[in-house]
Amino acid sequence: MKDSYVNAKLVEPNLIRLVIFSSLPFTRPEPTLVKDRKAVGKLIPSRVSTLSSLAIIDFRLENDLELGHSYFLAVYGYGILPLDVSEATSFPDFDLKYYYGGDDLGCTYTKKRTSFVVWAPLASSVNLLIRKEKQDGYDRFKMNHEEKGIYRLNLDGNYENYRYLYEITNNETTHNVTDIYAKASTLNGKESVVIDFKKIKVDPRRDCLPILNSPTDAIIYECHVRDMTIDDGSDIVNKGTFKGLAERGRTTEGGHPAGFDYIKSLGITHLQLLPIYDYKSVNEEEPDSTYNWGYDPQQYFVPEGSFGSKREDPTSRIRDLKEMVAEYHKEGIRIVMDVVYNHVYEYETSIFERVVPNYFFRKRYNGTMANTSGCGNDLASERPMVRKLIVDACKWWIDEYSIDGFRFDLMGIITVDCLNEIKDYARSVDKNFLLYGEGWNMGGDLTAPLGHMGNFAMLQDFAFFNDHFRECTKRYLTGDTSIFGAFKHAFVSSSLHYILPAKFLNANQTINYVECHDNATFYDYIDHSHPDWSVDEKLDLCKLGFKTVLYSFGIPFIHMGQEIGQSKWGEDNTYNKGDRWNKFSYSLLDKRYDMVEEFMEAVEFRKKTPPLHFYDPRVIESCFDIRDYGMMMNAFFHDPLSYSPYKNLSLFLNPTFESMNVTLEGGKQIEVAPRSTYIISERGEAK
Fold first, then answer.
1. Which helix (H) or strand (E) segment is 638 a member of?
2. Catalytic site includes residue 12
3. Catalytic residue selected from 179, 231, 438, 639
4. Measured by CB atoms within 10 angstroms of the end CB, which terminus of the chain is less buried, N or C?
5. pLDDT confidence of residue 468
6. Nearest to 453 by CA among 381, 501, 393, 384
7. What is the reported pLDDT for 344?
8. Backbone φ and ψ of 239, nearest 5°
9. What is the Cα 215 distance to its own chain's centre?
């Protein structure tokens, strides 16, 4: 109606509110409630509030409105108004009434029957749209409404490789959406696909993985599938793909190992991959036309399509990822998956909002959408069905793809309960499963405890990216004398009351690093703070950086290219900048292979030095001592159990630009070169 706005909304389980904003004279309405296209009776106002051009009329119902039906209000003079029931998701008993704990959400395939189950408690109808691969139109089937907000359909026959969508009607608005629980997809997530996973079974070769005594046995290397394989300086064939990251026998132009063989040669224990689930920002039909790291999740159970070797085949990405995992497992290397369960870029157009409006996303106290991360709308992991979605996704990656660890993006936005539920399942499958994430305290209105570092005692099996270690180490190595004491505290795991209060329960909770994907590289940090230093001086400090990470107490973390002092030309967040800024440079590897050799030696030294794997702060405190020689630190390690070939070790770390002469006990003199480390054991062995 011209110059009028009319809206009908369910605001309490048994209260409908009609809002009329109009220039027309107000007449008290007595609308008819229409359920499933049938009139069920007049509504008598229980409260009327009016102002000039505005009227708010409440209608109290005898019983709570039953969800899962079509509702209209027929209002004389204003027509037929759809009833908006989205607010029902905020009613106190909604989760109790509609939580569904079944393990059959999504599509379950057998040759004789395929079942489809979707949770859509607000929907008045859900239909399945399904077609053969080359069929032009869809066949349409009405799904059956069950308790707990479930819609179900069983189709007899063989539906392998069929494409499907759900046609969901909420508040009389209909959308065609993919399956939130889909396990396979066409390009760019346009359709979900029925897959026979028995045909793409791959032995994950978990039998080849060594046992870890504690998380401090891990040495993590972070890379992106495309970044690690795309450079023209190697003969990797399937560049930018899972298959390319698993190719053996590839080399650089200078004859050094590339890709898989290079990663293997480093001696690392864990390969952390930036997002490998399906994300939205890369055009999978033409992956070279767009670039993104993938922190904008689109499908939580489906691998990223641009990483598949045969992108038009929905099974290619699945098979390629499984085979890639198996290849690394054969070499004793575990795969950590970077997961983003904290936010979605645009909630309005997400399938979550179209399947269950007003449920999946967190709101502030004032009712506005929460964007705590600044990267998009927060996923409400405190809600049972959101938590179930996240946990189910994690279980799928563990069970189907044999993933060995999760790195949680902005973990400080996810609830502690959700994280611990994931931990309980992961550790029941693999006691060595690695769990860590970004534990920044992002604030927000939620009262439930979240996964930030301040709640470390509630997350005893989780590690946190230790920004205290990162900042103290970068500043100490580049000459900041004011940070020396704090650096020592970080060096001994930040879990001791040593100079500063402890930040963690033990060394298993600290991820020690100076560089990761979303900060400036350490080389660029040095270059920015000291542009007058020579390239060789900066590279010396880069080597000192990775050695400090590897020689400290905690879990060492190395970013791709850090070991060769790679630069991003001053950029610190290159998530969408493209290959030039992000690719691993194999020509630089050839030029600086001596740095790689030093890195490999440092990795090997850490592996065979048990004191560096200690995690109990009481044991750490009993086996180390720190002495100062100006700004040079001397850390003395004693192995009380005599496991190490170096029973007593003395590590000298000299970030200064001067040689340091030291007289040891017994009168022996040593010289520690500028910007270097020097290690000596009681046997006189030095590195």
1. strand 632-638
2. no
3. 438
4. N
5. 98
6. 501
7. 82
8. -65, 140
9. 19
Closest C-alpha among 264, 280, 444, 450 to residue 370: 444
The number of C-alpha atoms within 13 Å of 412 and in the hemisphere containing its C-beta is 19
Distance CA 428, CA 422 (A): 10
Q: Phi and psi at residue 606, in whole multiples of 5°?
A: -60, -45
Question: What would the two tokens of residue 402 be?
Answer: 């044999």
471 carries an active-site annotation: no
Q: At what angle do helices 467-477 and 484-491 cross, to 10 degrees?
A: 130
Token duo for residue 591: 């030029």
pLDDT over 70 at 687, yes or no: no
Local confidence band at 667 (pLDDT 50, 70, 90 cut-offs): confident
SS3 per-residue string spanning 415-466: EHHHHHHHHHHHHHHCCCCEEEECCCCCCCCCCCCECCHHHHHHCCCCEEEC
Taking the complete model, does pTM exceed 0.90, yes or no?
yes
The residue annotated as part of the active site, out of 217, 304, 404, 409, is: 409
Which contacts (CB < 8 Å, 24+ apart) does range 659-667 have?
A: 660/629, 660/630, 660/632, 662/629, 662/634
Contact 302, 184 (CB under 8 A): yes
Secondary structure string (H, E, C) spanning 392-423 = HHHHHHHHHHCCCEEEECCHHHCEHHHHHHHH
pLDDT, tens digit (0-9, with 9 covering 90-100), for 172-201? 999 999 999 999 999 999 999 999 999 999
